[in-house]
Design goal:
This protein has helices at residues 3-28, 31-44, 308-317, and strands at 47-55, 58-69, 72-79, 86-90, 93-98, 103-108, 130-140, 143-152, 159-165, 171-178, 181-193, 212-215, 223-224, 229-231, 239-247, 254-261, 266-273, 281-285, 288-295, 298-304, 318-320. With 321 residues, the chain is α+β, with helices and mostly antiparallel strands.
């Protein structure tokens, strides 16, 4: 036997061993472990890449630069088609730059991830409302990924498919699933993880010196109050997470904001005095559904990234205690 044949045999044997070890490591890692590591990766990973986002059958490409410094999110998102929208984020303050309109819209966001707003955590009550499993390994954006499937037990919530980078646990792709099909999707076409992000990469591409600056009305810091409203037919698994009284900027009107969650899906209930401004009935954008209804002297609006049946059932069953 030639030495080259021996070398090839050794390399093949080494490759088999490495694949076996890697497979054993993945096999010993439970879904909850992956979710724990994913949560940490989203909050700490610096990355740069191109994302394809699909909603309502429409696809858009986005260039993304993201880093975290001293716990503060720094990010730039640039639309690759259309009006050249740029989103510059510094912590919770977000500047949406519209170059064609020469304007900047200032908003406040609290999500840990601009791209992945509904990522689950290991705190979900799996076994009650959802099951989670490791499905298979695939390649996403040229990197090896492990695919997780989160399946609901009923029709009151969506399912999820998440592809996590096997090296860092960072989500490379996420899908929102309804009746077996993806209704929303975010997927990296290419990505560089954990490389140095220079400050210049996070600056706007346009001079906004002569742009019109507009601040999006937002709720003032609310006051925690006791829940005097509740649903008589709350879908199983949903619980009250918080109850606040808030006033909208530029208005003295008080709104009760109740947040329900099952550990993955969140539903907001807004209750205000009747004004005639709330549109009755349902509306939908992507995977988000809303339902408005009048109840006595009040208007109730329920919004969440859940099926339409969920928001309607909660809205129509809200009662004062």
């Amino acid at each position: 036997m030639h030495s080259s044949d021996l070398d090839f045999g050794r390399r093949l044997w080494l490759a088999i061993i490495l694949l076996s070890v890697n497979g054993a490591v993945l096999a010993n890692k439970l879904p909850h472990d992956w979710l724990n590591h994913m949560g940490a990766a989203v909050q700490s990973t610096s990355y740069e890449g191109t994302v394809i986002r699909i909603k309502d059958g429409k696809a858009e490409a986005l260039k993304v630069v993201h880093t975290v410094k001293d716990g503060v999110i720094m990010e730039k998102v640039v639309a690759q088609e259309g009006n050249g929208l740029e989103i510059i984020r510094h912590g919770n303050e977000v500047h949406c730059i519209l170059p064609d309109q020469k304007s900047v819209l200032v908003e406040e966001w609290s999500d840990q991830s601009t791209l992945f707003s509904t990522l689950p955590s290991s705190d979900i009550r799996f076994g009650n409302e959802y099951d989670v499993s490791i499905v298979r390994k695939e390649r996403i954006a040229g990197r090896e990924a492990i695919m997780l499937a989160i399946r609901p037990h009923d029709g009151y919530r969506y399912g999820h498919r998440i592809w996590l980078d096997t090296e860092t646990s960072f989500p490379l792709q996420a899908q929102l699933i309804s009746e077996g099909s993806a209704i929303e999707q975010v997927k990296f076409a290419e990505i560089r993880l954990n490389h140095e992000i220079h400050a210049s990469a996070l600056e706007p591409s346009y001079s906004t010196e002569h742009f019109t600056w507009l601040r999006q009305p937002s709720a003032h810091a609310g006051t925690v109050v006791e829940a005097i409203w509740g649903s008589d037919e709350l879908p199983a698994g949903f619980r009250v997470v918080s109850v606040h009284e808030e006033t909208m900027e530029g208005s003295d009107e008080e709104i009760t904001h109740m947040l329900y969650s099952d550990g993955l899906a969140n539903v907001s209930v807004f209750i205000a005095a009747k004004s005639g401004k709330v549109a009755a009935g349902s509306a939908r954008v992507g995977g988000s559904n809303s339902y408005g209804v009048e109840h006595g002297d009040f208007e109730i609006t329920v919004i969440g990234e859940v099926p339409a049946v969920t928001v309607e059932q909660i809205a129509t069953s809200m009662r004062q205690r």
